[in-house]
Amino acid sequence: MRDSIYIRLGLPLLVVCVVAGAGLAVTWTFTAPKIEAQAREAERTSLAAVRPAAATFEAVTDAGTLAKARAAAGDIGVDGVFRALDAAGQPAGVGVLVASRGYGGPIRMAVGLDRNGKVVGVTIVSMAETPGLGSKVVDDKSFLPRFNGLDSADAAKKVDTITGATKSSRGVRKGVEAALAAYAALGVAGGGSAK
Amino acid sequence: MKEFFKVLRNGLSLENPLTVLMIGLCSTLAVSTKFEGSLFMGIAVIFVLVMSNVLISAIRKFTPDEVRIPIFIVVIASFVTIVDLVLKGYFPSVYSFLGVWIPLIVVNCIVLGRAEAYAYHNGVVHSIADGIGMGLGYTIIIAGLAAFRELFGSGKLSFLGNTLVNFGAGYRGPNILLLFPGAFILFGLVIAGSHALNRRTARKEAV
Predict the structure, then answer these.
(1) Burial B83-120 (b: 16+ CB within 10 A, else e)
(2) ipTM, interface predicted TM-score of the complex
(3) Tens digit of pLDDT for each residue in A81-113?
(4) B204 to chain A, minimum CA–CA distance in Å?
(5) Where are the domains of chain B?
């Protein structure tokens, strides 16, 4: 009975793991659609707030375009690129979801640009900045609008950071710069041919 | 039943995990900047503690000594993952605030500590009492600390989108309260206070 120790110790461990795995699989089945919906919802509301006037967003799924946007954004992550189309179906601008680095973790934000490459609006999708300090980038209502109307990364660099939230505001600024760089690489049609 | 409440009370005062046993401090210091988030953190810890205590106590007779720690960890990690998924799906704002601290409950000393020190040697009912007591002891301290830090650090206290107290725009709180040094200093005061309280109760009971 040389094997018995493996069975004596291994079997309880195996049973516990199987039960735990099954329990998690069940929980996941219930929560996965909900989690997916929450993520979509957060992106949708953030994007809606930065939409060029009278336009609708359409996600860009072309891998080449996304790769181009990512290359232009450098070390800032690009989570998604959206093409804005006006009522006539003409390109009206671009929406970019970026994940910049803040003080407390990634700052996910949506940046909308109009057909001239000017920033229409910036919103924060999610972030983990220190409440009362880094969170001023959202609480200080005058901060995010400072980026509106800028049309180049150089201009964005000149936006003042908030006292006490230097790293957080720098993170937001980096995100906007990345979105502007992505726009510069893609053009108004959101990359490739305008349909 | 009397024993049940005695075990439960222990977690709150004489064996409070934070102020007496001094375990699980890491998340306490880091998360206690926002009342709402801390409260949910506390609820998450209570849930994980009670569930893992119950399960570990129920299977303690079939758990070989040599592999008990891996089994504890699997049980704890499963409940933490359940909490993680549920919060992500139903309370996204809370989830985005707590972030990495939810998965880190797995390595929270309180949960593994109670599994090893209590649930593994005691019956299911008492393990429930221990889980609730320890969890509440954790929640009360972390939520109280967070309420104080949020209120006096940022000048307002909000819960689920409602502002409960607001000192107005003129109030400029000491920033240190919201930063880590403030957490250490305040927590030191909390420990001192709770020890004084415990000593007084002990003296009263001795008389």
Answers:
(1) bbbbbbbebbbbbbbbbebbeebbebbbbbbbbeebbb
(2) 0.74
(3) 888 887 777 788 888 888 998 888 888 888 888
(4) 42
(5) 2-161+171-206
